[in-house]
Amino acid sequence: MAGPDIPSGGDRGQAYTLEGFIGAMVVLMATLFALQSVVIMPSTGGIDRADQAQRQQEALDALVVAAEDGNLSETIRRWDGEGGFEGADGQLAQSGDYRRYHPDTFANKSTLGSILDDRFNERGGGYNVEIHPKGSENKTLVYQSGPPPSSITASYTVTLYDDQYVTPDRDRTLSDLNESESAISELDNRPDNPVYNVVEVRVVAW
To answer: What are the residue ranges spanned by the domains of the chain?
Structure first.
């Protein structure tokens, strides 16, 4: 009667080699899967630079269009005579001495607001608008929320002159108002200097 087959030394060596090969393949596949996961994560949770660049250009375009028709200057000269902005109906600023605009109101009262509303709010995003005068308090015209990491910033500089009217009433010029009535302080009140202030209008959008 024949006894059970006993693997020879060569057969055992082949079996060990096959097991080692299979084990190596498992490790290799696991490593490739891990590497693939690392590559995918930045594209799913990262910032799309091309999209950022497009949004920044759109925000800058909005500022340029508003500036070219003169409305951007009028917007930052829309004062209420009490240190705030005419028609502002949003929340109080952190300083508590003026109100910001609700985005819908800002869109109705300004070219800039109308364009920003169309390009950002209507697409599920948002924006804030700030003014940064020289030598004067920075103020926020519109504040919707704290910007996310993917937000962009665009700005445009507007020069205000002493003889420009406060809008929308146009009853008095900028230099006619005293400090407490002005939303933006006068930079230099010398009679030989016609510049009232130089203001950076800054848009933060997402």
So the answer is: 8-45, 49-205
